[in-house]
């Protein structure tokens, strides 16, 4: 988890180094009220009251210092500090998060602004399974949603701004927020929230502010490229054994730049997950032997990514082409029947991984051909592992 914190801080620094405008900043304070979604059975008895708290942000208005500012119609770059009570002090406790984000302008007039917000960072929880469970051998006696203090934090949604006085505006928003550790520690059902917010923002240098002016800048080359990414990591499978298993992935992707904002890729993904060693049944995957083939999966994925100078971020969607585990899940069926599933089939995510995998991806180029890569591989809302990687771009 310390590595996760370091990488997020590095990516935050990279984002701000490309975007900061010292004098064009504003300060925002908001009250937050929301709810936790019951996306898994582990949360049904944990949700007692509403989510309540606040957020303090500092935002910088981009003025075209970097070409991508103009490509995205001069968004604002911010960093937020969030404190939330999760509605069940004994079990869920409180959350503290810090995260960088971008606000993209959708509508902007002198009387009204509508923006789309997206960000990711770190969250810290004071209640987790180990310090809430009455019986450490029974998930139902504690916080079965979170097994770690340090977790990732995602935020995405819309917000509006209405000017009130010189430099002072009313703001309101509605966001989806998520905290989990990517299955690095178990249990890890994660916490998904839908939160509404209302507050004020103040722009100290409003008298000196001038709107950014568009300039003649070169467009990004509309050409093909290739990414090769090698990643590794580790994760737990079962909250009782406290064992770490190695994970890894190899991605070979071909990309095409479309316009100045988006690159679209098609990739072949190879995955290794060491938890499937024949001893980790736990009534989900029916395994009786420790074989390499059961730890390997291969798929093909569509990889749209937004480009922000040296930084790119996107959500990848994949289909398994080789997946021996699909006929070993769910446990009850695989243990009594010989399954033969097609590439695409109906499934219950609570009982098996299924045919679809996704990845939230961030890449940062630190040299002409080399980049750092950070990914979170999931099956729908269930995280499999975090990918810490390095890539080469042709």
Describe the structure.
By secondary structure, the protein is mainly β. It is 7% helix and 50% strand. It contains three helices and 16 strands. The longest helix is centred in the first third of the chain and has 16 residues. The chain is globular, with a radius of gyration of 22 Å. The N terminus is likely disordered.
Main sheet specs: 8 strands, antiparallel, barrel
Termini separation comes to: 31 Å
* DSSP summary: helix tally: 3
Could you tell me the radius of gyration in angstroms? 22 Å
Low-confidence stretches: 1-6
The average pLDDT score comes to 89
Question: Under the CATH scheme, which class of the largest domain?
Answer: Mainly Beta
**Helicity, in percent?**
under 10%
Please give a handful of descriptors for the protein shown.
394 residues, mainly beta, Porin, eight-stranded antiparallel β-barrel, eight-stranded antiparallel barrel, globular, disordered N terminus
How is this fold's topology laid out?
Elements: H1 2-17, E1 25-36, E2 51-61, H2 67-71, E3 76-85, E4 94-108, E5 113-125, E6 150-165, E7 168-180, E8 191-202, E9 224-235, E10 245-258, E11 262-273, E12 296-308, E13 311-322, H3 331-336, E14 356-365, E15 370-379, E16 382-393
């Amino acid at each position: 988890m310390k590595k996760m914190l370091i990488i997020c801080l590095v990516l935050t620094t990279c984002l701000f180094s490309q975007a900061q405008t010292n004098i064009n900043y504003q300060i925002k304070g908001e009250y937050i009220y929301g709810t936790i979604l019951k996306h898994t059975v582990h949360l049904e008895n944990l949700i007692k009251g509403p989510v309540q708290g606040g957020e303090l942000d500092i935002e910088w208005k981009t003025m075209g210092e970097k070409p991508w500012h103009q490509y995205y119609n001069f968004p604002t770059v911010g960093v937020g500090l969030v404190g939330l009570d999760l509605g069940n002090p004994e079990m869920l406790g409180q959350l503290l998060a810090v995260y960088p984000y971008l606000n993209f302008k959708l509508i902007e007039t002198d009387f009204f602004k509508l923006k789309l917000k997206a960000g990711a960072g770190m969250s810290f929880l004071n209640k987790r399974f180990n310090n809430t469970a009455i019986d450490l051998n029974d998930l139902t006696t504690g916080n079965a949603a979170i097994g770690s203090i340090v977790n990732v934090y995602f935020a995405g949604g819309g917000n509006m701004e209405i000017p009130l006085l010189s430099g002072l505006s009313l703001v309101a928003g509605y966001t989806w927020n998520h905290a989990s550790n990517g299955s690095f520690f178990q249990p890890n059902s994660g916490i998904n929230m839908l939160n509404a917010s209302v507050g004020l923002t103040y722009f100290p240098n409003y008298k000196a502010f001038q709107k950014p002016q568009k300039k003649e800048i070169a467009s990004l080359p509309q050409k093909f490229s290739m990414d090769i990414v090698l990643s590794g990591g580790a994760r737990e499978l079962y909250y009782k054994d406290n064992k770490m298993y190695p994970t890894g992935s190899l991605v070979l992707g071909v990309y095409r730049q479309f316009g100045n904002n988006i690159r679209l890729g098609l990739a072949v993904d190879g995955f290794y997950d060491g938890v499937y060693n024949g001893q980790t049944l736990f009534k989900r995957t029916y395994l009786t032997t420790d074989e390499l083939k059961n730890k390997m999966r291969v798929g093909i994925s569509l990889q749209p990514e937004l480009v922000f100078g040296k930084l790119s971020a996107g959500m990848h969607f994949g289909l398994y082409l080789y997946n021996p585990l699909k006929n070993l899940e769910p446990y009850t069926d695989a243990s009594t029947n010989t399954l033969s599933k097609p590439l695409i089939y109906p499934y219950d995510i609570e009982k098996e991984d299924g045919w679809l995998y996704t990845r939230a991806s961030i890449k940062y180029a630190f040299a002409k051909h080399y980049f750092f890569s950070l990914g979170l591989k999931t099956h729908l809302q269930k995280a499999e592992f975090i990918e810490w990687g390095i890539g080469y771009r042709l």
